[in-house]
Amino acid sequence: MTSRRDWLLQQMGITQYQLRRPRALQGEIAVRLTPGTKLIIVADIAPGLHEPLVRDVLHALGLQPAQVMALTPDQLQMLPESLDCAGWLIGIDGPHPFSAVALHSASLNELSSSGAAKRALWQQMCNHDSDLFPHP
What we know:
By secondary structure, this protein is an alpha/beta fold.
């Protein structure tokens, strides 16, 4: 159902634009990719970088917390449409903007209690070791 205003604008040949990210204008703070970011962690509730499991994964990847950003899916949408750094999607399915490596894992609760989930994450890390692990 279109309003009279929309109908009149259409009759006059005036194109109306739709915002792709309307929440950006509703007072939400824009998210910027910090220089030196090598990994973006995406989860419904952004995990702390000092949680033991996250800290272990970062250590295995040879990354410092300063090289990592933890975001929610809504915050991820505010970043550029194509990201050159790696991503770790924790309990998130669907499209992502990572042009480099994107690791997918179960939620942190399931990951910390399930050996199979940890093995699946480690297998992904090994499959992309040339992209993820620092080599001298």
